[in-house]
Amino acid sequence: MKKIFTLTLLLSATIGAHAQSNSYTLNQKASFEEFVRNIVILLMIYMVTSFILNMIKLFLDDRLKRKIVETGTPEVVVAQLLATGKNENKNSLKWFCALGAIAVGLGIIGCYNLTDIYALMIIAFCLAIGFLAHFFMVSRLSK
């Protein structure tokens, strides 16, 4: 609930700040390029921190497995603690679909030399198609 409230508050602040302008800021080429640069920087930061957190998680899971083996924990407890293999496969498939779809979108943008909001629309559409493909693949694999 706090996240929704904070998001609503921040969104209303940006709309209020935008209401003072007479022109649409994404129509100006410099502001659009700055917007895209900021989005790319945020995505890169997210990917780097996600990678670091996953590496820490893998390291700590390995240490936990070693401790479990050393102490001789019963098999029932070990099976409950280590039952995360399917989720990792689905997560890998999700990343593959998302990054593949973004690559296709960037290819389309490069072929047609699209700029401005059309480039963002192509990327968003391709990403949506990628997640839809991920959904169908996961549902088919789980049957």
Mind sketching the topology for me?
Elements: H1 2-18, H2 29-71, H3 75-81, H4 85-112, H5 116-141
Walk me through this protein's architecture:
The chain has two domains: 34-83; 84-143. The mean pLDDT is 80. With 143 residues, it is mainly α. It starts with a helix and ends with a helix. The protein is built from five helices and no strands.
Summarize this, please?
This protein has helices at 2-18, 29-71, 75-81, 85-112, 116-141. With 143 residues, it is an all-alpha fold.
Question: Quick one: biggest sheet?
Answer: none
* Poorly predicted parts: none
Rounded to an integer, what's the Rg over CA atoms? 22 Å
Sequence of secondary-structure elements: HHHHH
Work out the strand percent.
under 5%
Mean pLDDT: 80
Structure classification: mainly alpha
Features:
5 helices; single chain; 143 residues; 2 domains; mainly alpha
